[in-house]
Amino acid sequence: MKKGFTLIELLVVVLIIGILAAIALPQYEKAVEKSKSAQALTLMKTVYQAAQAYYLANGTYATSFDDLGIDIPWTDKNKSGTITDARNNEEWSARLLNKSSDDSKYNAIQIRRLSGKYIGAGFEIYLHHNATKVPRNVLFCIEGYNDSNLKFEKPRGAYCSQIMNAKYIHQGDPNYYFTFDNTQWGS
What we know:
The protein is an alpha+beta fold. It has one domain. It is 28% helix and 28% strand. It contains 1 helix and 8 strands; from the N terminus they run αββββββββ. The chain has an 8-stranded antiparallel β-sheet with strand order 1-2-3-4-5-6-8-7, covered by helices on one side. The relative contact order is 0.11. The model has no long low-confidence stretch (mean pLDDT 81).
């Protein structure tokens, strides 16, 4: 009698491997994205602390990363609209926002995805906002963006809820705002 595997046994093994791969691949992709987001959040916290220190020393918020005294090793500096300074790498854009008009005044820090599956998603923290309903020093997870090149095209919650475990709190125009544990951000 010859020893070996039957075709049915081989098909069952291939089916089991396929099922395991189908379960493991999304979890792996989620872990990779969460790791990339952790790096962005580390930079966000550094910029936030430097912005707060700059405000304490000068009575106003910085409009340039150069004013903050921190090294952001990203290139592609740009400014436009309310963005007073931005540093980009191939995946993320770190931005200082400063809007000062009669109807709205605010200072904020953003870090947004420039590429990949979750383009347009990222994080934002308001340092100052003249609207009473906008919380300051609270880290938000954001999906969506005004720029058509960074349009978030996934269902609401695909990044913030499913990847970052954030709670949905508000739909802006066109951003979706989520929040999570903010104890490290001073709220």
